[in-house]
Structure formats: C-alpha cells, structure tokens
C-alpha cells in the first residue's frame, strides 16, 4: 500500500538524482549543485557521465574567470556532484528528475526500476515536454508522487520551469517541487498535463507552420527567420530554432500534440519527417534547415540554398521623390523614414489640416531623437524641410514612388489606387502597406498592375527594421528590384514573399496568439502564467496577451478572420473569447480594457 502523502512527510529535497546526463540533464545538475543540493548524476553511458563532469568543470571555471564564483565556491559545487551508471545510486534521493530520451518505453522502464529503489516518500519527476505525465504516473507504484518538471535549455540560463500535475498528483508534491524551483532562482508555472504544456504547446505549433511555409516555397529560410526576428523581436528565427532544438525532437513533440489535439496546425509538416529520416536533424548533425561548420557547431556555412550576394540582376527604376498617402501613425512614420534617408517626401492626406497634423507628429518624433542625441538639431530641421504636407493627391504627380498607408479597408484602398493611377506619372511605382489585404486587388484598381507592389512596414516605422516586400503575379521584375533597392537606402531589411494573407509575420504570429487565447478559454492556464512562460521560456519580448492588448483586439480579430478565410483551416478559426471581448468593446490598451485592465490616461 502506498504511503499517504502529506506536507510533513516531505523532506526539503536536499538530495536530487538526475537521470540522463545529456545537455539538459547536465544543465539541471549544475543548477541544483549551485543552489546547494547534493546531486547524483546517473547515465548508462560512462562516457556521457564523464562529459557531464567535464562540462561542469568548464562552466564553473568560466564562473571564476568572470568573478561570479570564488575558487572555494567552485570546489564546493563540484564536490556536491557525483555520477554513476547504476540507477541504484538514486536510493537516497529526495527527488529524482528523469531527462531520458522522449520515449514512453524508456521512461516507463526507468520509473518501474525506481519504484523498487527509492524511498516511499521520494518524488519522481519527468522532464518530458511531449509525453503524457499521467500515463507515466499510472504505471508507477506511487502515482501520487509523479509529476512533470520541465526545465528549458540551457537550464542554467533559462528562468522558466513548468510544474506539471496529473489528475493523480498529490498537491504536497507540487508544493515541494515548486518551492525547490523558487529556491533555484527559477520562475515556476503550474500547468496541467497536455502535450507541450504551455510554452512548447504554443511554440511548436508556430515552428511547425514556419516549416510548412518554407516547404511550400512561399519564402526562403533566411527571409522567414529574419522576418520573425526583426518583425517580432524574437531572439532566433523559427527554422534556426528548429535546427537548435533538433528536427527529430520537434517532430516527436508535434506528433504527441497532434495525437492529443487532432488540430491540423500540429500535424508535423512533411519536411520534418523527410529531414529526420535523412539524418538531417539540425545543429547536432551538422545539417538541418541550414548547413553548419561541423556537427554541434552553431556556425552556419554557405550551401546550395544560400542566396547569391548582389541581389537582383534586374536594374531598378530611379527613385528620388516619394509620396506617402495617409495621416496616421504609420503614414507619418514612413514619411519620417524616407525623409531621414534624404528623399524628398510629399505627405498627402484627405485635408490640409490632417496632413499638417501628421507633419507636426514627425517634428515631435525628430525632436525626441535630438533630445536623445541620435541626431543633431540641424539634421532634424533638414529632414523636416524635405517633407511637404498637402491635402491633395494631385501633388503626387512627379513622385517616383507612391506609398499608401491609409485605413485597412479594401474598398478605401482600391479607391485610392484608382486615384493614384490617374495622378502619378507613367513608370511611378505604387506600393501598399497593407498587412492583411490582397495586394493584387489594389493593383487591379489601376491600369498598370505591373507597377503595384506591397511594402509592409512595421509599427513604429522609424524603429522597426523589417519591410515585407510583397509581389503579386502581375508585379514587374524591375518594380520588385526598385523596392529592394529603396529598402536598402532607407536602412530596412527587406524580405520577399508572395501575395497571400498575413504574408510571413502575421501568418505565423496570429495563429500563435489565437492558440494562447484558446488555452485561457479552456482554463488550462492563466494570462499571467502564459505570458511569463513565453517570455521566460521562449525569449519573447512580450507575452501573447500583452501583445494582443497593444496591437488591439479588433485588429487581431480582423487579421485572424482573414487568415481563416484564406486558408480554410478549422484551427485558424478565431477563438470565441476574442470575438466576445471585441463585441463587448474591450479592445486592449486603447480602450483601457482588453485581456487586462489599464489605468485611464
């Protein structure tokens, strides 16, 4: 009969066994030893155990060199770690953390053996990120003491730890490991048992869609990765991250998620299977989506898919003057960007007053740059002098490039393009900044669809480095070359993509945001826990709910509807909770309430 679990029966988890001494197990052992725990590292491979010890020696030596540890600290940390190839070394452990390969058979075998080795009160934790904690617990003699303890790689640096309860887990066990995580300097997040938990549950769906986008040849691997780094502020692009995680590992996680959810967004993209079966599993193999200097290296080297230096072979058209249509934040930001780069800019709005207000906004932005020492007062004055504000599009007659940044309404944009068609000189390039509407629909409103292209800037335009360059099936090669050249002159990173809903960034970003809303809707995790998980576990600059409230829930809903309508995937249907909040007028920061409430301005 299992020993009843109570708070009083729990030790303070002073001795911890770590089973599996790969990269993750080694990192966990280091974290535990630095926090004063006695650590027993166990691996069937003596070579792997020796590698773990060498890694700990090297890591602590770096700590001494950087002044974070004394030599005495280092000696004490290393003395707290011993290794073994025998699972019986875990006999005296208060907690066992298993980080063996992601296989039910392997993990169940370890848990069965541990049942006959450890004390009745010992807590057994699995480090899985894809397998069912409940299924592992059910096979244990003490299911109430089994839970998930999911660290993130690299464990010494990443602050997030997901504490995963099954329906069988005793609350006292959860409390004990949560307190341990806090003592380790980590941020524990309590989650239920479902594949991927919070962070990986959201992350791997996004990575899968990025792989599918690349497989469909919609955009190059370099452009997909650059778009998500520069457009969302992520530390790595999705394809580079898949190579780091391991393509085979990602496939395993996604298969587990798909088995549980049956959501097509989790069905592993075929390219993941193809790369895995070919042994091209990412950095560890020396090749995955990218090719690396050597197995285990993070240095990317050129291969047959690397873009040629020098860009477009087709010469672009000359651009000296630019017209910007609109009076909002995006229009004024784009006008500022062009003026700073030395272009003569005509800023046109529906009235002279609106145009002057937009120019005044640019003046304030330039003044802030002067105050922060980013430019001189003279340069700011010269920049503002290059901008002519006007209340009529007739003043676009001589511009070489016209960029519209008006309301995200197709009929409004079509009417504007029809007007530009009449006003702009032959050979002028006409660009739309739409983030979700078909560029070709704007092109068809003109008599020169070959001159129309998408230039999707990101807000705030002066700060954000990315521009998505969107070609339609009708866009001329020299128009595409012109916009690429212009992006270089205004110091923006251009990525190429085709004319379909969401382009690169929004097509990958908004399904991730929608899935986060579904987690809250299903009461799986709280807003705060999800935001914390993605910032701490994924390196995101903002959690999904922080971002949704900043973007605007109405804007987010509109983009999600466009994606659902274009791709017809049930998994892309907007979460009902988002629709309900928008219907209630809770649109985010701009209304003072969205997923959270904000102080009134």
Automatic annotation (TrEMBL):
Residues of the 3-hydroxyacyl-CoA dehydrogenase C-terminal domain: 196-292, 502-598
Pfam family of the protein (one): 3HCDH_N
Keyword Oxidoreductase included in the entry's annotation: yes
Keywords, sorted A to Z: Oxidoreductase
Pathway(s): Lipid metabolism; butanoate metabolism
Domain spans labelled 3-hydroxyacyl-CoA dehydrogenase NAD binding: 15-193, 322-499
Statement: the UniProt record of this protein carries the keyword tRNA-binding: no
InterPro entries the record matches: 3-OHacyl-CoA_DH_NAD-bd, 3HC_DH_C, 6-PGluconate_DH-like_C_sf, 6PGD_dom2, NAD(P)-bd_dom_sf
Family indicated by similarity: Belongs to the 3-hydroxyacyl-CoA dehydrogenase family.
Record-given protein name: Oxidoreductase
Lineage of the species this protein comes from: Bacteria, Bacillati, Actinomycetota, Actinomycetes, Kitasatosporales
């Amino acid at each position: 009969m299992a020993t009843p679990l109570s708070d009083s029966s729990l030790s303070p988890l002073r001795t911890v066994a770590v089973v599996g001494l790969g990269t993750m197990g080694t990192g966990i052992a280091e974290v535990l030893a630095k926090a004063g725990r006695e650590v027993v590292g166990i691996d069937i491979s003596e070579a792997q155990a020796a590698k773990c010890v060498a890694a700990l020696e090297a890591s602590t030596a770096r700590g001494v060199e950087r002044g974070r540890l004394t030599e005495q600290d280092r000696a004490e940390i290393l003395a707290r770690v011993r290794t073994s190839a025998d699972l019986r070394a875990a006999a005296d452990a208060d907690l066992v953390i298993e980080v063996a390969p992601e296989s039910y058979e392997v993990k169940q075998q370890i848990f069965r053996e541990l049942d006959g080795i450890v004390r009745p009160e010992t807590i057994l934790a699995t480090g899985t990120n894809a397998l069912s904690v409940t299924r592992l617990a059910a096979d244990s003699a003490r299911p109430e003491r089994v839970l998930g303890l999911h660290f993130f790689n690299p464990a010494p640096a990443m602050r997030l730890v997901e504490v995963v309860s099954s329906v069988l887990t005793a609350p006292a066990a959860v409390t004990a490991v949560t307190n341990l995580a806090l003592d380790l300097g980590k941020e524990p997040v309590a989650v239920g048992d479902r594949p991927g938990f919070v962070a990986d549950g959201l992350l791997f769906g996004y990575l899968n869609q990025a792989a599918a986008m690349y497989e469909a040849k919609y955009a190059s691997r370099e452009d997909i990765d650059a778009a998500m780094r520069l457009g969302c502020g992520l530390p790595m692009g999705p394809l580079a991250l898949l190579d780091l995680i391991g393509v085979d590992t990602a496939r395993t996680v996604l298969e587990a998620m798909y088995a549980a959810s049956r959501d097509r967004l989790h069905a592993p993209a075929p390219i993941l299977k193809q790369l895995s079966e070919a042994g091209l599993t990412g950095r560890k193999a020396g090749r995955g989506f990218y090719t690396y200097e050597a197995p285990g290296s993070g240095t990317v080297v050129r291969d047959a898919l690397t873009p040629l230096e020098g860009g477009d072979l087709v010469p672009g058209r000359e651009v000296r003057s630019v017209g910007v249509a609109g009076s909002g934040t995006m229009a004024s930001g784009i006008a500022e960007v062009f003026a700073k780069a030395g272009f003569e800019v005509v800023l046109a709005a529906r009235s002279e007053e609106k145009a002057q207000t937009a120019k005044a906004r640019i003046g304030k932005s330039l003044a802030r740059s002067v105050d922060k020492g980013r430019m001189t007062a003279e340069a700011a004055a010269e920049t503002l002098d290059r901008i002519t504000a006007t209340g009529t599009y007739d003043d676009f007659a001589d511009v070489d490039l016209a960029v519209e940044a008006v309301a995200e309404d197709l009929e409004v944009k079509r009417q504007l393009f029809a007007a530009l068609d009449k006003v702009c000189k032959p050979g002028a390039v006409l660009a739309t900044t739409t983030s979700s509407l078909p560029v070709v629909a704007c092109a068809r409103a003109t008599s020169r669809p070959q001159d129309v292209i998408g230039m999707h800037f990101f807000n705030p335009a002066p700060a954000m480095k990315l521009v998505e360059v969107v070609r339609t099936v009708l866009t001329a090669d020299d128009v595409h070359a012109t916009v690429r050249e212009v992006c270089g002159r205004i110091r923006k990173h251009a990525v190429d993509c085709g004319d379909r809903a969401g382009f690169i960034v929004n097509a990958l970003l908004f399904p991730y945001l929608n899935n986060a809303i579904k987690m809250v809707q299903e009461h799986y995790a709280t807003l705060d826990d999800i935001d914390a998980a993605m910032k701490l576990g994924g390196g995101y600059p903002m959690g999904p709910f922080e971002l949704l409230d900043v973007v605007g829930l109405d804007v987010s809903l509109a983009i999600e509807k466009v994606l659902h309508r274009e791709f017809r995937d049930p998994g892309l249907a907007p979460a009902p909770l988002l629709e309900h909040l928008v219907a209630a007028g809770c649109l985010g920061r701009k209304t003072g309430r969205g997923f959270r409430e904000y102080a009134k301005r």
